[in-house]
Design brief:
alpha/beta, 2 domains, about 280 residues, Pantoate--beta-alanine Ligase, Chain: A,domain 2, 9 strands, single chain, Rossmann fold, globular
């Protein structure tokens, strides 16, 4: 497995690998990331992953400085998973000048997570577009745990006519249902025992919707109360259509999304329900 530290090294690698599958990451990898690499390998293309902690998508007071950097361990996991190369650019390679041009996202970027992390999706889409331009993949993989992120990236690729097949990887969970996340390591032992409750509440809503309930607000309020009673601070809990628009009585397919804090750790999750999901 090659480690590419600069845009120049990436260019040389691309000359030998004109088509590739791409898995962008910020490092501190877990089995969710590795499952994306394994899925990317099914394309039959050489797989390149990136490791870059993007400052543009962190707001004031967020965890950019303390976000875990575990590069050596990450490379070992990627090599074991069959990755062909890792692109690990320096900050000056990604941003040789202060970034003054940005991807302007749609209104969806100001809802759900975007309401509580202003500018996050603008910074995320900007770096993803830059990575796409540098790597020029034929296929790119993103996890469904970050459902809103995936929807925005897929929409950007479609509307910007990017010749990239954007594919989703299913959320990988611990045995107790907690979605794997690089931020789970921030949880104390007691918080880690409590953390699966978010998924449990989203799953209960999904099961109720599958049984025909359509009192969306009541379902949301019941789950919110259950979380509040166990010490959670909830940013949002929302029932949406798969395209993340608001649901209607006659809908059959839904995604239930939530973001909430346990102590100083923000967790997100979602559950899909309905025919074909």
């Amino acid at each position: 497995m090659q480690i590419l530290r600069s845009n120049a090294e990436l260019s040389l690698w691309k000359a030998a690998h004109p088509d590739c599958a791409f898995v962008p990451t910020m490092g501190n990898l877990h089995e969710g990331h590795i499952s994306l690499v394994q899925q990317a390998r099914l394309s039959g293309l050489p797989v390149i992953a990136s490791i870059f902690v993007n400052p543009l998508q962190f707001g004031a007071g967020e965890d950019f400085e303390r976000y875990p950097r575990t590069f050596e361990a990450d490379c070992g996991k990627l090599q074991s998973a069959g990755c062909t190369a890792v692109f690990a650019p320096a900050l000056e390679d990604m941003y040789p000048q202060p970034q003054s041009y940005f991807v302007e996202p749609p209104a969806l970027a100001s809802e759900l997570c975007g309401e509580f992390r202003p500018g996050h999706f603008r910074g995320m889409l900007t770096v993803v577009l830059k990575l796409f331009n540098l790597v020029e993949p034929r296929v790119a993989l993103f996890g469904k745990k970050d459902y809103q992120q995936f929807a925005l990236i897929r929409g950007m690729a479609a509307q910007m006519n990017l010749p990239i097949d954007i594919r989703a990887g299913e959320t990988v969970r611990a045995d107790d249902g907690l979605a794997l996340s690089s931020r789970n390591g921030y949880l104390s032992d007691a918080e880690r025992r409590e953390a699966p409750r978010l998924h449990q509440q989203l799953k209960q809503i999904g099961e109720a919707l599958a049984l025909g309930r359509r009192d969306f607000e009541e379902l949301e309020v019941q789950a919110l109360d259950a979380l509040y009673q166990h010490g959670w601070k909830v940013d949002y809990l929302s029932i949406r259509r798969p395209d993340l628009s608001l649901p209607a009585e006659g809908d059959a397919q839904f995604v239930v999304l939530g973001a909430a804090w346990l102590g100083k750790t923000r967790l997100i999750d979602n559950v899909e329900t309905g025919p074909g999901l």
